[in-house]
Amino acid sequence: MAFASFVIRRLLLGVVVMWVVSVATFLLFFVAPQDPARLLAGKNPSAQEIANINRRLGLDQPILVQYWHYLIRLLHFNLGTSYFTGTSVNTILKEDLPPTLSVMAGGAVLWLIVGIGAGVLSATRARSLVDRISTTGVLIGITFPTFVVGLLLLFLVFKPLNQAGFHWIQTGYEGPSQSIVGWAGHMILPWITIAAVSAATYTRLTRGALLDALGEDYVRTARAKGLSERRVLYRHAVRAALTPVVSQLGVDIGTLAGGAVVTETVFGLGGIGQQSLTSILNGDTPVVLGIVLVAALFVVVANIVVDIAYSVLDPRVKLS
Amino acid sequence: MSLLEVRDLRVSFPTADGVVRAVRGVSFDVDAGRTIGIVGESGSGKTVLTQTLLGLTAGGQVSGQAVFDGTDLIGLGEEQLRRVRGAQIAVIFQDPLTSLHPLYKVGWQIAEMIRAHDKSVSKKQAAQRAVELLGRVGIPQPAQRVKDYPHQFSGGMRQRAMIAMALSLEPKLIIADEPTTALDATVQAQILDLLLRLQQDFGTAMIMITHDLGVVADIADDVLVMYAGRAAEVASKRDIFYKPHHPYTKGLLESIPNSSAAGGRLRPITGQPPSLINLPSGCAFHPRCAYVMDKCLTDEPSLTPVAQDGFHRSACWLPASAAGLSAEAEDQRRRTVGEGRSVAAAKIAEAIAKSPEAEGSVIA
C-alpha cells in the first residue's frame, strides 16, 4: 500500500516536472536566434515566402496560442511534426531511441562490471600489481575524451579486424530483432567507449565506499564470527558499499537517455544524441521538445527506480 | 593447565609518527568457567590485547604466546584462526548498533555464524537455532523478532542478540569488550546479569574488558588492571577492592562515581594517560603518581607478589605493606560494594522500578 501510494505520488510529481521542462524548453526556443522559416525557404527568399512558411508552421501566432496547441497535442501523446522533414516526431523518436537505449544498457552493464571490479580490487589489494593496472586503465579511460577513445577503437580494433576478414565488429546500427549476435557486434565498440569514460567514476565510488565499509564495526564482527575473508568482503563489506553506486547509476542512466552525442556520432549509430544536435542547430522545435520530454521522462523514471532500489537494498530506508 | 595462558604478549604498530607500543609484555591466565576483568583507561591496550588473541589486529607486530586449549594462537594460520573465531572464542563488542550488519536480519546473522563453522547444519536448522537463542537471551516473541533488522531492536535487545550470537556455538571463552558501555544505565545491569547467568549455564570462561570497576564488581572473579600497555596489578576481585596495592588501582577506586553518596567528592587521577609512542621513563605511571620515588623515574617495575598467596601481584616499587585502601577509598568502597548487597542487585532493582516498558523480559 505504501509502495503503491509512493509510486503514484512520484509519478504525479514527475508529470509536473516534465510540464515545467516542456515550458522552459518551449520558451527557450522562442528567444533563440534561429529562424526556421528562413532556413527552410532556401536562398534569397522574399518576405512573402517567409511569411507563408511561418503561417504554415503556425509560427505567426502569439506564443501562448502556439503553446496551447502544443499542449493539447501533447495530451494526446502527439509530439507534432518536424519543421524540416514533415515526419512526425513520434516516428523520429521510435527510430532514434533503440540505438541510444542499446548504447545505454550495454554501456551501463560494462561500466558497472569494470568499475565495481576495479574499485573492489583497489580497495582490497591497495598497491598491488592488479590494483595498479586497473587504476591506470581507469585513469586512461577518464583522461581521454570520448571521441578519442572512439576513434582509437575504430583504428586499432575495427579496421584491422575487418581487414583481416573478421567481420563481427561493425559500425552503424542494426537492431537486435534479426540477430542478437549481430546487434552486439555493432554495439560492442560503443559500449567500450561509454564504459571507458564512466567506469572511473564507479571505480572511485566503489573504492571509497568499500574502504569505509571495511572500517566498520560490523565487518570486524563478521571476522570475529569466523567467516571466511571472502565472505566478509563480499557478503558484508561490498554489500554495504553498493548503495551509493546504485544512486549514481540512476543519475547516469537518466543523463544518458538524452543521448550520447559523441559516441553515437563516431560510430554512426543515429540515435537521440545525434538527432538532438541536428534539430537544435536547425531550430526544429517540435523534435527538440520531443527529445527533451523523453529524456526528462527517463530521468524521472530512473529516479523513482533508484528510490525503490534503495529501499530494497537498505531495509532502514522507508519509501515515503 | 588454564584454558588460556597468555605469556609476555607484545603488540606494536609502526606509524608515521613512530612505533605505537600498545601492549608491552602482558601475561595472564583464564581458567575454564571463570571470568577475568581487564580494567583500564582508553588507550591502555586492553582492547588491542584481546583482539590480538583472535588475529584481528591488522598491521600490528605481535610477539609472545597465547596458548588456548593447547594451541598457541599467536602465529596461527588464517584458516586455523578462522575456526577458533566464533566457535571457540566469541566476542561481544561495545556498540551493538554498529557491530551488527545494518542490512541483514538479526536471525540471519546468527544463522550465518552457525553455518560458517558447521556446514552440515541446514539453513532451516540454523534459523531454528537462532530463534531458540534469541529466546534464551530474553527477547520476547523470538520467532517474530528473528526476522527483524537490527534497527528495529532497542539498544538492549541488540546487545542481547549479540550475546545470543556469541553463545550460538557454545564457545569455551567469551571476550566481552565493554559490552555495556554503549547502553542506558538501566539496561546495563540487565545485560550484566544475563551474561553472568548464561556464563554459569554454559560453563564458559570470560574476559570482561571494561573501564568500569562497577562492572568488575558485578561479574569478575579475578582482575587485571592495565596501564599503558602493561599489567599494573593482578588480583582476585576481593583483593582489588579491599587491598589494592598499585597507586593506579587505588586511583581508579577513588574515582568511582556513586549517586547514593550525597556530598561525597570524587578524586580523579590527575594528568592524562601517556602517549604510547613516547612513554615516560621508568614506571609509565610515575608522572601521575602521588607516591612517586626516585627509583620510579628510572626503573620500570614488573609484577611482583604482594601477598602470601602469590597470586596478588603489583607492578609498583612500593612495599607489599602498602596494599590496602586510603581512608577515602575505604569509604568509597563501602558505598560501592559493601553492605552485603551487590551493585548488580541494586541496579536491577532500580531498573525494574524505573522502566515501565521493561527491556525485554527482566530476569531477576
Distance between the termini of chain A: 11 Å
The succession of helices and strands of chain A, N to C, reads HHHHHHHHHHHHH
Mean pLDDT of chain B: 86
- Examine the secondary-structure arrangement and name the CATH architecture of the largest domain in chain A: Orthogonal Bundle
State the CATH topology of the largest domain in chain A: MetI-like fold
What shape does the CA trace of chain A take? globular
Our count of helices of chain A gives: 13
The CATH H-level superfamily of the largest domain in chain A is MetI-like
Count of distinct structural domains of chain A: 2
Number of helices of chain B: 14
Q: Which structural class do the helices and strands of chain B define? A: alpha/beta
- Rg of chain A computed from alpha carbons, rounded to a whole number of angstroms: 24 Å
List the helices and strands and how they pair.
The complex is a heterodimer of chains A (320) and B (364).
Chain A lengths: L1 H30 L4 H5 L6 H11 L5 H13 L13 H36 L4 H15 L2 H18 L16 H35 L2 H8 L4 H28 L4 H6 L5 H11 L2 H29 L7
Helix pairs in contact in A: 1-13, 5-6, 5-8, 5-10, 5-13, 6-8, 7-8, 8-10, 9-10, 10-13, 12-13
Chain B lengths: L3 E12 L2 E13 L4 E5 L6 H8 L7 E8 L2 E2 L5 H7 L4 E4 L3 H4 L6 H12 L5 H14 L5 H4 L9 H13 L5 E5 L7 H18 L2 E6 L2 H7 L2 E6 L2 E7 H6 L4 H8 L39 H5 L5 E2 L7 E2 L12 H11 L5 H12 L10
Parallel strand pairs in B: 3-8, 3-9, 6-7, 7-8
Antiparallel strand pairs in B: 1-2, 1-4, 4-5, 9-10, 10-12, 11-12
Helix pairs in contact in B: 4-5, 4-7, 5-7, 7-8, 8-14, 11-13
Features:
heterodimer, A: about 325 residues, mainly alpha, MetI-like fold, 2 domains, about 75% helix, B: about 375 residues, alpha/beta, 8-stranded mixed beta sheet, 4-stranded antiparallel beta sheet, about 35% helix, globular, disordered C terminus
